[in-house]
Fold:
Amino acid sequence: MSKAEYDAFLAGCPSRQLLDRITDKWVALVLAALRSDGSHRFGADCAGDPRPRRYSELFRTLPGVSQKMLTQTLRALERDGLITRTVEPTVPVTVTYEMTDLGFSLHEMIRGLKSWAEAHMDDVLANRAAYDTRVG
Amino acid sequence: MSKAEYDAFLAGCPSRQLLDRITDKWVALVLAALRSDGSHRFGADCAGDPRPRRYSELFRTLPGVSQKMLTQTLRALERDGLITRTVEPTVPVTVTYEMTDLGFSLHEMIRGLKSWAEAHMDDVLANRAAYDTRVG
DNA sequence: CAGTATCCAGCTAGATACTG
DNA sequence: CAGTATCTAGCTGGATACTG
Structure:
C-alpha cells in the first residue's frame, strides 16, 4: 500500500481516467461512426464532417456492437461532453447524437495515435517475427 | 458475423494490436521507469535519458506492480523490440533492460497523449459535474 | 425507436508459492 | 536475483428478454 502513493498514472488520477476514455475500443469506433460517410468502411479514415446520427443508425453502422455497449459508450461520451444527445418528442421518440468540439478534438487525437501505430507497424511486426524465431 | 468484416479497428487488425500496446497501463509505467531519475515520482515527466535498469530496480520503482505483470510487460515490450533484455552470466544472474529507439519513440507518443489528456481534463471534469447534477 | 434489465462465460490480474 | 507456476476473485462484455 505504501508503494501506491507514488504514482501519477493509477486509478485516482484524472489523466488516467481520460486515457481510459481515449483508449476504449467502442469510443473510438463510435466517434469514427459519427464522422463517417455511408460507406460502411469507417475504421481507417472517417475524417468527414460530424453530422447527427440516430441510435439505430449507429447500431447498424457499427460492426458487432451490442445494444448494451453502444448505450453505455454513448452515455459515457455524453457525460464527458464529447457528444450531445438530443431527444425529439415524436412517437416513437427520435434521438440523435452529435459530436461536440471537444469530441472532435478527441477523435483527432485518436486518429493521430492510429497513424503513429500504422507508421511503426512493420517495424514491430518484424521484431515479433525475429523474437518468435529466436525463442520458438 | 457478416457485420464483423467491415471494421479496421477490431481484433485482427495489426494497428489495433499496436494500440493495445500503447495504451497498456504497465507499458506506460515501465517505459517511464526506464527514463526516470531516482526520485520515485516518475509518472508525470520522466523525460530523462533511458539508462539500463535491473529487474529488481524496476520492481522496486513501480508502485503496486506484481512480478507477474512486470515480467509479462517486459516480455511483451522485448518481443516488439521496444526494449532490450541483457543477461550477464554472473551468479546469480544479472539482467538489465534498456529502451530502444523504437521504445523511445513509443514513450514520446505516450507522453504526448498524456499532455493532451491533461490539457482537456478540466473541461471534461466540468462536463461530468454538470451531467451528474442534471441527472442526479 | 431507443432503450433497460438480467444472466452468465471468459479474460485479467492479483496473491501466493516455488526454482535455477 | 530473476524469474515461473498455479489458483482464484472480480470485472467486462456478449446474449437474451422485456418496455415506455
About this structure: The radius of gyration of chain A is 19 Å. Chain A has five helices and three strands. The CA atoms of residues 10 and 87 of chain A lie 37 Å apart. The longest helix of chain A spans residues 101-135.
